[in-house]
Write a structure and sequence with these properties.
430 residues, Rossmann fold, 28% helix
Length: 430
């Protein structure tokens, strides 16, 4: 049998991992719920996929495992890749069948449950934050913390259905709004809502950033920090990223990230750990994402290191050893920006991106109705921009946001386009 590389739910830049595997002469099998993309920067070329296996849903473990057993029986599987939360445990099952380095499926399910993650961190002395399941919190008669808390799905992604609450009355009001929030993306909706489980966590103070890592056969290798831009009027909403990102506590952050990887049992693949970093005091984990950072991070990392990042991901997928001597030797800075419609816009027609942005992604179709919310679920597009220095990048990225035209009009400085960021964003190392 021809050596085969299997992609599970291939979306957006994951195509580049499949390209890297194809360039090695491997057969490409894709197991997807959604149709292969036919337009945009990640349209799948006709004939590129050697076999497409379609599944009705990722919410039926018995049926999916039958599909994977059949794929394994019919193909010589030498590598796999997955980057969407609901499919990660199934990727682990296939990797175990193929004898590839992997994190156990049960460990991955625990990593995807924010209640279990917080409990394990507490068990190992890696968090000081209080937390509870929503069911437990709704039995309280008194608020247990001095400050606010964050309510979020136990199995979540993005900022969907996340609420900041400062007492029991606000908590109950937030719960009452659950059914009012429409999650348009069907796979995301199925993943977030299928368990109906929520976690309430004491709010961590500081700056939100992420540690981006590659984990090879049990050893974590942080490749850098990624800084955040947030919506000024609602800092829960992420609006953009900078990579690499220089922070004065970087060495300490990296060490804590390595400790968390080991405690959580993650063994092989890419990860994104979101951390809250105060000027002083404990660095706290906010989310452990056992996958590559979303959207265009693969492009950002490749631009920063001047190497095809997808080739590294394909090598990990194949279970190969990797020379990590390149880490820290970045040559360029990159930013990905997420765009919201201006206030009051209820119908989307077009978005036009300015030069020198690239890797454009339009997330709406002409004529789509807009909800009027200001969160990531109402995003209309994304772009990437790079520059030789962090300072130049910061200026260019904000200018490009203002110059982007939606329905023919520049976004300018409307309240859905005004961002906040750490003072370290846009700073170069001295």
């Amino acid at each position: 049998m021809t050596p085969t590389f299997v992609m599970l739910e291939m979306l957006n830049p994951m195509l580049e991992v499949a390209r890297a595997a194809k360039a090695r002469g491997l057969r490409i099998v894709v197991v997807n719920n959604t149709p292969l993309q036919t337009e945009g920067p990640y349209a799948v070329p006709e004939g590129f996929v050697d076999e497409l296996v379609t599944v009705d849903s990722w919410a039926d473990p018995l049926e999916i495992e039958k599909v994977l057993l059949d794929v394994h029986r019919r193909h010589h599987v030498v590598g796999t890749y997955a980057g969407f939360e609901p499919v990660l445990p199934y990727d682990a099952v296939l990797r175990e069948l193929a004898g590839l380095p992997h994190t156990g499926a049960d460990d991955l399910r625990a990593l995807l449950d924010k209640n279990q993650v917080r409990d394990r961190l507490r068990e190992h002395g890696l968090t000081t934050l209080g937390s509870a399941t929503l069911d437990e919190a709704l039995t309280w008669t008194e608020w247990p913390w001095a400050g606010r808390a964050v309510l979020k799905p136990a199995n979540g992604t993005g900022s969907a259905l996340c609420f900041i609450v400062d007492g029991l009355d606000q908590l109950r009001k937030a719960v009452d709004t659950f059914d009012e929030v429409e999650i348009a993306h069907p796979l995301m909706r199925e993943y977030i809502t299928r368990t109906r489980g929520y976690v309430l966590e004491e709010e961590a103070k500081g700056e939100l950033l992420s540690v981006e890592s590659l984990v090879c056969k049990g050893e974590p290798h942080p490749i850098g920090l990624m800084g955040r831009y947030v919506l000024a009027k609602d800092p829960v909403v992420e609006m953009g990223f900078q990579f690499p990102y220089h922070h004065p506590r970087a060495a300490e952050i990296f060490e804590k990230a390595k400790d968390i990887h080991r405690v959580m049992g993650f063994h092989n693949g890419a990860t994104q750990i979101e951390m809250m970093v105060p000027d002083e005091g404990p660095v706290e984990l906010i989310d452990f994402n056992p996958r590559l950072a979303g959207t265009a991070s693969m492009v950002l990392f490749g631009e920063a290191y001047d190497r095809p990042y997808a080739e590294l991901l394909a090598a990990l997928g194949l279970g190969e050893d990797i020379d990590f001597g390149f880490i820290g030797d970045t040559v360029r800075y990159g930013s990905e920006m997420i765009l919201l419609p201006p206030p009051g816009l209820t119908r989307y027609e077009s978005v036009d991106f300015p030069e020198p942005t690239f890797c454009h992604r339009r997330s709406r179709k002409p004529g789509d109705e807009l909800s009027g919310r200001a969160d990531q679920l109402d995003g209309i597009g994304m772009f990437v921009i790079t520059a030789p220095t962090a300072a130049e990048l910061h200026t260019a990225a904000l200018r490009a946001r203002r110059e982007t035209r939606v329905n023919g009009d520049p976004l300018g400085d409307n309240e859905n386009n005004v961002l906040a960021a750490s003072p370290h964003i846009g700073r170069d190392l001295a």
